[in-house]
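Annotated sample (chain length 236).
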Amino acid sequence: MEEQNHIASAFDRDLEAVQAQIMKMGGLVEDAIRLAAKSLETRDEPLAEQVRAADTAIDVLEAEINEKAARIIALRAPTAVDLRMILSVMKISGNLERIGDYAKNMAKRTSVLSQMPPVNDSTGAIRRMARLAEEMLKDALDAYIRRDADLAADIIARDEELDQMYNALFREFLTFMMEDPRNITACMHLHFIAKNVERMGDHCTSMAEQVTYLVTGAHPDEARPKADQTSLNPRG
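Output written by the structure step:
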């Protein structure tokens, strides 16, 4: 019995360390979203470069989390419930890494767009989208730590709002390009950025689904709402 208690406490310590890294990674990704959107709206190229450089730390954390999670599985022989927890950690870290990549991609296009005339209030609209994605991410991390399935369900529902914001922007970009061909290059870049933010929402939703799985042992019964009307491609 004493040996079993020792193994259990060692597992708890290992899991606590990994979860601390998840929260650290989540904080870096939240910063990346906010700063990438700010650099786009204010045409701040040094800030955009800061976002691109910071992505390395996010990638390093994901690698460390996966390595530690694999070690826990190998050394601690977790039960089915504990194994579900470890697998959720790995999937959440993967979602965070992808969101960080999308923020980096936003920042990469800032230097190009800063050399072009603004297209209406497109960058402000993208920043509002990014703020919603950032809030979804923060809540997804909170839901994970608190094991809050209700909050997770709310995040899944909110993804539809982000999709609708993206759809509205997509239609605006088409209008701007048809009205003036000189807008085409800028609108193409802005469209890719808006799509990146929409995909951030998808990954936040995926994190929320992992919380549901972690709490209930099953994925959400209903197909998640998806209001992106611009593509029939399956989710990546």
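Annotation: Helices lie at 2-42, 45-76, 80-113, 122-146, 149-179, 184-216.
Annotation: The two ends are 46 Å apart (CA to CA).
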